[in-house]
Amino acid sequence: MSSRRGSCVGVCRSSLAMFRLILLALSILTTAASSHPHPLDPLSPAELTAVRAAVLASPLISDRPLTFHYVGLDEPDKTDVLSYAEARSSSSRAALPRHAFVITRAGGQSHELRVDITNATAPTVLSHAIHHGAGFPTLTLDEQFEAATLPPRHAPFVESVRRRGLDLDDVLCAVFPVGWFGDAANTNSQKKGQQRRVVKVMCFMAGETPNFYARPIEGVTLVVDLDRMAIVDYKDRVVYPVPKAEGTDYRAGKAGASYTRHATVPDVVVQPEGNGFHIDGHFVSWANWEFHVGFDMRAGMVISLASIHDAETGARRRVLYRGFLSEIFVPYMDPTEEWYYRTFVDEGEYGLGLWAFPLQPGVDCPANAAYLDGYYAGQDGKPVQNKNMICVFERYAGDVAWRHTEASFPDKLITEVRPEVSLVARMVVSCGNYDYILDWEFKTSGSIKVTVSLTGLLEMKGTDYTHADQIRQDAHGTLLAENTLGLYHDHYITYHVDLDVDGTNNSFVKNVITTRRNTNTPGSGGADTPRRSYWTVSREVAETEADARVDVNAVPADLLIVNPNKKTRMGNEVGYRVVPGALTAASVLDDDDYPQIVASYSKKQVWVTPYMRDEKWAPGLYADQGTGNDGLAAWSGRNRGIRNEDIVLWYTVGLHHIPCQEDFPVMPTVSGGFELRPANFFERNSLLKTRPPRFGQPPFLNCSCGSHSG
Amino acid sequence: MSSRRGSCVGVCRSSLAMFRLILLALSILTTAASSHPHPLDPLSPAELTAVRAAVLASPLISDRPLTFHYVGLDEPDKTDVLSYAEARSSSSRAALPRHAFVITRAGGQSHELRVDITNATAPTVLSHAIHHGAGFPTLTLDEQFEAATLPPRHAPFVESVRRRGLDLDDVLCAVFPVGWFGDAANTNSQKKGQQRRVVKVMCFMAGETPNFYARPIEGVTLVVDLDRMAIVDYKDRVVYPVPKAEGTDYRAGKAGASYTRHATVPDVVVQPEGNGFHIDGHFVSWANWEFHVGFDMRAGMVISLASIHDAETGARRRVLYRGFLSEIFVPYMDPTEEWYYRTFVDEGEYGLGLWAFPLQPGVDCPANAAYLDGYYAGQDGKPVQNKNMICVFERYAGDVAWRHTEASFPDKLITEVRPEVSLVARMVVSCGNYDYILDWEFKTSGSIKVTVSLTGLLEMKGTDYTHADQIRQDAHGTLLAENTLGLYHDHYITYHVDLDVDGTNNSFVKNVITTRRNTNTPGSGGADTPRRSYWTVSREVAETEADARVDVNAVPADLLIVNPNKKTRMGNEVGYRVVPGALTAASVLDDDDYPQIVASYSKKQVWVTPYMRDEKWAPGLYADQGTGNDGLAAWSGRNRGIRNEDIVLWYTVGLHHIPCQEDFPVMPTVSGGFELRPANFFERNSLLKTRPPRFGQPPFLNCSCGSHSG
């Protein structure tokens, strides 16, 4: 394990405050520690420590070693949380019990525990169960780092390295989940019917470059049994040249001179009047929005209880109970031995919170950002601090929220413009080679925009090819550099979005754009005019889950989550529109292919399910070697009623990635996502009440600044 | 005509410099006037004046009055422009001849002229022709304002107003093109076979609100013959209440108090080291980009000769010969008498350049923007200045161009991040009620992102309804307020993108994502592994135009413009990818419906044609009452060869708009567009050479600023 993660205990134990807020120059932040945690606050270091103590002290699990694979908040019932939230202005509201949900491994089994930590000095285990189904919990960082150290001590591997003329000192290995390929492939031959907890380990040449993904020792596969921490299978199937290190380093100063022409000077964003947002504990309030930013070691950032102030009525109205990234499914498209199994479910296998690293102030987030830390349980159960894990900032991109110029009056030109300033909560996950920049953006219009930006490094395959002309059969990718293929792959980033539009019970509506022939008959919608056709809206309210599986590319339709129990003054059902943005690919794998069975939800971008407390993870709770039998498609298969129920929207952002040379050695960002826009939620445009900015004089004209050239 | 537009002559005549650049605080701009115009420079005031003189002096048109409907640059042959551009570093390059293309109306006919203005003191008419086909040129502003003044002097209209109990003093009228609905509908009954140049005039109640679109005098239609400037038809078909003015005013201070909670403070973007871009005449250079920003009274902003510096080779490489917005098609979906004809082709009918108004510094564009003026010919042929018509600014939205955190090394955590700073050229068109914010964004990665953001006011329909429960039949829209319907409609924003990827001759390639069954047979692309399927790329090179009509929602495919004559060192054809962004709707009108015949291109987002100098306008040169017989679909119907030819990409951004109450009284911005991303154009990621920003210390920490609270 890297030193970065190893020694947080001092920091964690010394502080009662759950998060430390970074006070930036010219930023005004409220750094208040709540007297007791909000029911949705993530587990504090003290609470994580209490969980560990209770589990280790429990007689329910006697096997040792015992490793912690998941420790997270076991959320109170939604009704209790909502009651708590509604009483938030009252000083008399009582704290809810604090429970943790825990998955440990011990004695070759996965154990699920619920621990009461309401009194962190006297934690108690409430329940214990052993998971007998398919799949395993998230891999710990420690066991991955340990497994990665095994190959250089494995004689056949040393021989493979020697035979290739490589320097063993420069070898760096990484852990790859094996995926699930049917019971025959995943079952332990000794213990019939029981899956082996194994991973593949692939090795690379680091040495002259930190970009080892560009230098695979292609053809060599090791299999490590994690429970025994031993190599159980070894293949050296084929030898390809290791691509050269030259040109792969992405660090500043290693990539040659910058532009000789006018260099780009990044803007500096400053706010002379201070940040417009306030953070109180985990609650962020800004403009007309208020929401809770939490953290989970699997999901990463979690947005909860987002509500908006309605300027018309003065009321605070609920929009989102909880939103988080549920899974990132990344299948590669090369069926060969070293690649066929690379069908990652990153979040379930690796844990987004575990792979979220400190954001770099001023570059990962602009200078006006505030930062939040996160805490998770290490393999030993001890709290680990994840510093600067989330940033919150006001975003101004030079865009316009609304405008109009009216030129029809003969004596005056009216121009009204409101710049678009929004609030962003951001986390970045570096899940091995790929980096995902994950934004939740709140707009004063009432819109919530969810954006995922993909960057980082490609996973690259070694090859004999040094020129595209040599390629005679399907190479499953693009030749990026000598001996280097960037393989075809997909990304399916699935969000769990529990909208509660102005209340808990909602319906899912498809307003299908439908062409009509002009009948020339008034009364039927037609008219006696030369127009021959028009479109109208066919409203379909989803009764059950089957009605709510939508391919957004197939039929033009407006998709809405509405509250059928609330109407505007005009009589329209209050609602939010689900607006697909860029990246709407759906999986094209065969339905009977194993990774497609695991992530069968990836064939539709939109699903709607009734809210169930434990239906969180799209491929199921146990995603490593999971079979999908406990996932989104399986739940939806029950075809439950979803009309006027507490419902959850699942939205998948999808990308077919055909690599190109520009993706080498590091990928320019590609962004996509979706937007949740109010649609008849307000009586009128809520931005109307936004004040125009005060640009009476050029800003900073009278500045005398000493550090400009810094 | 409004005073705003009437008296520019003094300004225009007094200056030889074609554009004045606004020097902002802390911005460093090069304001250089070229010694002679670039061949793609728009016509200067002096040139416009010369055109007018030549046309009025010409014996070829004797009829008077003579009105100018289009005056624009008659571009030199592309080969000449390219030769000129390539010689640009040489001081000896000779100026190309300067020609103007002109459309006038005189004697009830449309006249086309070409005028030589190389010597602006002695302009000569080179050619003259009379247009005998269908359709009319762009409406002038003067004739629209004049036509709009006719109704209050028309006795039947005055009676209609009186009968509704309205105040004639508050009536404001606007001009609506009649569209084309077959020869029977559009032909003058007196002159067989000849179209009448007519418009419809619809009237509204302004008075208490500038948002007159929200207060239609529904049911009353006037038809004005523009050549006679007389009302030739009048209908008062049905009476609905005029919606009330209350709640429709969007001006600051008219919409009630702002948020009582934390007010949003817009960021201030400043650049202590000055702008990173330089403007020389119409040429913008920034980072690795260089391009020409022109202007046309029909197209608005025109981007030409965009080329990028290749840091690897030191060469400047061509990307885009010319890009501009070709048409905005906006059909409404109500077949009734007052609405069926509202099937706007905004650009051809109204002219985007004519309806581009001064950008508001600091709100339409951020504080670090520079501004360019535009000049067009008024109806009388005299030059009119369009001040602050285009802005250019560096954009920093807090986003990341690329990043990676590498956590696999046991002793160090590597994090490299480059913020995304791009350059935006922006124009805003307020085409009647709608506002279009039109951005061309250049990124250091080599990407060009084209974004259109829609805002402004809805066109609203009067109705009896005051509550949705009263609606019993298809209302063709949403009830937004009492007596106010927001009607269903579409927007199809079509761009002409003449990419010249690393040279003039290019091909269009569809890399279709194709599912393959794993044959378990190495050699066929399969492998002996449990994986059952994967996808690969089926490469289809378009031979003719028919191969290049693409519905981007139908089949997953990477679309590329490649140069088959240039390959990377790795052997990949150099190319640019066409990446659809948000808003990919296609028209669903019946093929035989008249507006669909005019804009039949709106059923596919992507078309590719061979470059032809005069194939610019998607619905044809004469769009007002045009029949589409001279438009994109007609040209493409010739099915010409496009492989390894000089080709043009046409991309349509599409939106089905179902209005909601939030669109009232002013619409929050909705954005969509597409991106042109280099794909094997460079040998590697060109952003690698971007320097990381210098954030050694918080910016402005030592500032002593006097105007912060201003």
Task: Name the average pLDDT of chain A.
Answer: 89
CATH topology of the largest domain in chain A: Beta-galactosidase, Chain A, domain 5
Give me the Rg of chain A, rounded: 27 Å
Largest interface: A-B, 221 and 221 residues
Q: CATH superfamily of the largest domain in chain A, called what?
A: Copper amine oxidase, catalytic domain
Distance between the termini of chain A: 36 Å
Global shape of chain A: globular
CATH class of the largest domain in chain A: Mainly Beta
The largest sheet of chain A, given as strand count, sense and whether it forms a barrel, is: 19 strands, antiparallel
- CATH architecture grouping of the largest domain in chain A: Distorted Sandwich
- Count of extended strands of chain A: 31
Broad structural category of chain A:
mainly beta
Explained architecture:
The structure is a homodimer of 710-residue chains. Helices cover 10% and strands 38% of the residues of chain A. In chain A, strand 12 and strand 13 (300-309) form a beta hairpin. Residues 1-34, 259-268 and 695-710 of chain A have low confidence and may be disordered. Chain A has a 19-stranded antiparallel sheet that branches. Chain A has 710 residues and is mainly beta. Chain A has 10 helices and 31 strands. The longest helix of chain A is centred in the N-terminal third of the chain and has 13 residues, at 45-57. The first copy, chain A, has 3 domains: 34-131, Roll (Nuclear Transport Factor 2, Chain: A); 141-236, Nuclear Transport Factor 2, Chain: A; 278-395 and 421-685, Copper amine oxidase, catalytic domain (Beta-galactosidase, Chain A, domain 5). Chains A and B meet through helix 7, strand 9, strand 17, strand 18 and strand 19 of A and helix 7, strand 9, strand 17, strand 18 and strand 19 of B. Strand 9 of chain A pairs antiparallel with strand 9 of chain B, so a sheet runs across the interface. Chains A, B: Its cofactor is Cu cation. Chains A, B: Residues 1-35 form the signal peptide. Chains A, B: It holds the Pfam family Cu_amine_oxid.
